[in-house]
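Entry:
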Amino acid sequence: MQQGLGVPHSLQVAAGHEALMRLRKELPNPKCTVTTPMGVVFDVKTPPDSRFESWSGNCGLRVRNVALADEGRWRLTATSGDQTISGWIEVYVEADKTSYTAPPISLQDGQSHANVELTTLDSMYCMVAQPASESSLVPGHCEVTLDRITRAVKGNWDVLLGLPGKINELHVQRQVAVEAERLDVGYIHDTNANKIHLYCNILVTEKNITFCRFQRTNAASGYNVMDGLSDGAHSYYGQGFDQRHCGMTIEEPTAQDFATWRCTVGVQALEGSIIQQKTPLQALISVSSSNRMVRSTDSTDDTEIPTVFTQLDKEFTVMCRADRALRYCWFQHPNGEQYTPLPLVDENQVF
């Protein structure tokens, strides 16, 4: 009953802010007495210091510059003639949050139904403004679900947070990066151990590797590479299929091994509740006999992944380049077919 007479029942206040509390029921010309969590008792009209003053015109109290020591149960007692009512308010003091920093958010291009957590703070609501979209109000914890990730969501997101115990909203800016699935392809020639390590790892993906195959382009057969297996000269290289690593170590390589290799990575992905086999990913690795390490794509590379926009029934151009002389060039269609660009010989030529 006493809790019901204290308003609000429970009050969260950020340190440095003000707390306002009162009795729900009013008495005519009451004497209003306050009992603090530390057991200090005083009349609201004659407070012990300037932090306290009478509030609400009846039995109420304003506490300025709230500190952590003010946390606990505050009791208000109003007396008028032979009538007395008493109520209490539970005060919780939170540290004043003036800023929030977090690392950039990395999203996968093309991912569907992606849940993006913008802060870990316990917010009452947040107002979210994406780079190319209208602001949206999110009640409760600040997270949004995107139907599909595109490069349009890349950039700075502005977030306004409503935090418990704080009147002013907290402004947070989150940097969102959108990365596309790609292969990290190359080789390492370890001259000390006399080994060649070929690798063809998948970056930024939710797909799982089902097989890993390497074949010299001038050979009739290839190698089915699996962790833990070796034929004495060829074995798996990498951190495992669960880390999306596909690689092969060649021990004591011969002159034939310094050639162009094709790596093929089998993949599968979860669609709904069913695991579906997807089009294998492929790439070529040109192994030189010079004593050097070659990494064609570094996982820390900030190179922009190009996006091509076109209209239905219109032509478009895709282009790739390398920082060294080319010996071959080919493109893989999304359906898995591979095309080598050839000179245009007639108007009906598609590629």
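Confidence is low (pLDDT under 50) at residues 296-302.
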